[in-house]
Amino acid sequence: MNLNIGLEGSSITRPPFFDGINYSFWKTRVTIFLQSLDYQLWHIIVNGPRMPTRTIEGVVSPKPENEYNDNDFRMLQLNSKAKHVLFCALALMNLIGYLHVIRLNKCGIY
C-alpha cells in the first residue's frame, strides 16, 4: 500500500489520475476538475454526448454538418473535451475495461 497517496499537490491543468484504487475519492476529484473547466463537461459525462439536431414537422433528426452553427461546434468541442479528460485520467488497464463495458452496453449484454 502506498502511504504517499495524497501527499503531493494536485494539478489544476491535468485531470486527477485514476489507477484503479479508491474510486469514490477519484470520482469526487474528477467531477470538480471537469466542472472547473466547463460545468457542461460533467453533464456530458453523466448524460452522454450532445449531437446537433434539427426538428422538421415535429420530427427530430441529426443535423447535416453543412447546417452546423457556432453553438453546434461548441457542443461538439465539449463532447471531445470530455472524452479527452477521461482518456487522460484513466490508466491503460482501466481504459481497456471501460471500453469493454461500453461495447457490452451497445450489444445489450451489460
UniProtKB/TrEMBL annotation:
The chain crosses the membrane at residues 84-102. Keywords: Membrane, Transmembrane, Transmembrane helix. This is DUF4219 domain-containing protein. It comes from Cephalotus follicularis.
